[in-house]
Amino acid sequence: MKNNKERIQKFLSQSGVVSRRNAEKMILEGRIKINGRPAKIGDKVDPIRDKVVVGGKRVVPTKNKVYIMLHKPRGFVTTLSDEQGRKCVADLVVDAGVRLFPVGRLDRNSEGLLFMTNDGDFSNILTHPSHHVKKIYRVTVRQNVSDEQLIKMKEGVVIDGVRTLPCEISILSSESNRTVMRFEIVEGRNRQIRKMCESVGLEVIRLKRTEIAGVKLGMLPQGRWRDLNQKEIERLMNISKSRVQTND
C-alpha cells in the first residue's frame, strides 16, 4: 500500500490553514490534534485517513490554490487573528472566499506589498532564507543621511548579534530633516530595515514595500487586493529553480 503520509506542518500549510512556521508554534502550544491526541513536531499524517483538528475544527485539504497581492495599510498586523484585538490583514481579504495566510511578514507600522495564499509550497519558496528573494522598499527617515551612515548600512550592520547581508541603498530625495531612500534587500528578518536604520542613528517614519522578486505593487490602492496573474505566479514559483541555476 502506498504511503501517503506527510509532515503535519506541510499538510496544514497546503490545506490553507496556517504557514509551516506558525504550524510549529501552534503544535508546541498544543492547539493541534491528530486523531484525538495532541500533535508533536515531526508527526506525519495521511490526508485521507487521519483526522486533524485545529481550534476545534477538522482540517479539510483545499483543492483550489489562490494567490493574491494585498496593499497592506499601516495599523494592521500580519496575522490571521490577534489576541490583543488589533486589526489583522485577514480582515482585508474576507471577500476572497477562502482562508488565506500571509506570506512572510510586514510589521504593523509598515505598509505595502504583501502576498497571501493557501498554498504552503508557494509560501515556503518565498520565505526560505536560502532563496535570497529580492525585496524593494521605499523608506523615509526623519534625518538627513550621511555618506558614512549609508555605507555602514550597505556593507551590513549587526542586529541581534548577527550581521546583515550587504544590500543596495540609494537616496531618492533629501530635504531639511527628511530623507527618502530605496532599500533592496534579500533577507526577511524581523523589522530588519527599521533596526538597520536605528543602528546608525536614523528614525524611520514611513516604510513601504513596493516589490518582491520583480512583482510590483503598482497602483493598487491601500487596503485592496487583487489576484496574481499567471505570469506573476510562475515568476515567483520559479525562484528556487533560478537560484539553483545561478549557483551552478
Shape: elongated
How far from one another are the termini?
38 Å
Number of helices: 7
Largest sheet: 9 strands, mixed
Low-confidence stretches: 244-248
> Strand portion, in percent?
25-35%
Query: How large is the radius of gyration?
Result: 20 Å
Structural class computed from helices and strand pairing: alpha+beta
Order of helices and strands: EHHEEEEEEEEHEHEEEEHEEEHH
- In total, the number of strands is 17
Mean pLDDT: 89
Determine the fraction of residues in helical runs and give it as a percent range: 10-25%
Structural write-up:
The chain has 248 residues and is an alpha+beta fold. The chain is built from 7 helices and 17 strands. Strands 7, 8, 9, 10, 13, 14, 15, 16 and 17 form a 9-stranded mixed β-sheet that branches. It is elongated. It starts with 5 loop residues before the first strand and ends with a helix. The model is unreliable at 244-248 (pLDDT under 50).
Structure keywords:
248 residues, alpha+beta, 9-stranded mixed beta sheet, 4-stranded antiparallel beta sheet, 7 helices
Describe the structure in brief.
This protein has helices at 8-14, 20-28, 120-127, 147-155, 192-199, 230-237, 239-247, and strands at 6-7, 32-34, 37-38, 44-45, 52-54, 57-58, 67-72, 101-102, 111-117, 135-141, 158-159, 162-163, 168-175, 178-185, 204-212, 215-216, 225-227. With 248 residues, it is α+β, with helices and mostly antiparallel strands.
